[in-house]
Amino acid sequence: MSKTEKDHIDLYRETPVRYLGYANEVGESFRSLVHVNVVRFSYVVASGYVVADAVSKGIEASVRPCPSEEVRNTNIRRTVLDTLIWQGLATVAISGFTINRICAFYLFILRRVSNIPEPAKKWTTTAVGLGCIPFIIKPIDRSVDYFMEQTY
């Protein structure tokens, strides 16, 4: 690895821009408190992050030396597709679904067994969802890595 490759900082994975990818998890955490369009917008933000990362990786692949234009184009397509699939699964689909189900289950349980006021139940559910985000990221990322290695 050359010095410039070591010094290269990936804007989409090694800077605070990465947090845009978590927008849908935050949206799902707040689902019980906000209008559904706010949650939908959080998915737009996260999906925009995924597309921007894929485009960025494609641009990086386009400047790497290749023996022919055909090989270069194949490498670009593979890189973009790989990034879209991985990020789409890990950043948007699986993580959003996971937080959605955690929050839905927690709110369901609170409504069944708790006498606390409804607004407190919703805020508690939101806090649980937000609190789960740091704990689900690495297992989901590793699972998607494994899936991608075994399939695509």
From TrEMBL:
Transmembrane segments: none annotated. GO terms for cellular component: mitochondrion. It comes from the Eukaryota. InterPro entries: Mitochondrial_18_kDa_protein. GO terms for biological process: mitochondrial fission. Pfam families: MTP18 (PF10558). Belongs to the MTFP1 family. This is Mitochondrial fission process protein 1. It comes from Potamilus streckersoni.
